Amino acid sequence: MHMRKLFLGLFTVLGMLAFVPASEAATGKIGFVNVPEIMAKAPQAEAARAELQKEFQPREQKLGELRDQIQKEETDLKRNASAMSAERKKQAETDLMQKENEFNKQLASFRQDFGEKRNQVLQGLQKQISKVILRIAKAGNYDMILSDGVVYASDKINLTNKVLAELKKSAK
């Protein structure tokens, strides 16, 4: 059933292309942008990473210190458990479990906050990149600019460096 729909769709597209004059099909101007490369190299992306690091590094560092403290107390408990009374050992295990629960709660909150902020920053960056791509497309009279899912694009149609240059200009 799925293959039948696929073939039907393919024949429909081929049928539509048969009615497009060859001269119209040959005049379309196509460009390509490598968005992951832009996201990695754009100064705005670097600034976004620095902003995230500045905001979240102190919390991350505190979580690391808390994790280290819990691991040390766990090691101490294992080492000294045989010398402890049953009541004291149980109290130490309960305290350790409470600290682990608190750590896990703080870690989950950190991850959620970081993810929300990262998505917010990425959306802003993607809007900036899209505006630059649209500006280049209109200025260059492009009919189509491709990004994801392209297996090969020659340097002749690759606009990635042009987009990066525009982003660098606007970052100054």
From TrEMBL:
SUPFAM superfamilies found in the cross-reference section: OmpH-like
Listed GO biological process terms: protein stabilization
InterPro entries: Chaperone_Skp, Skp_dom_sf
Molecular function, one GO term: unfolded protein binding
GO cellular component terms, A-Z: cytosol
Keywords: Signal
Secretion signal span: 1-25
Annotated Basic and acidic residues bias: 61-79
Region of interest called Disordered, as start-end residue ranges on this chain: 61-93
Highest taxon listed in the record's lineage: Bacteria
Family: Belongs to the skp family.
Protein name (database record): Molecular chaperone Skp
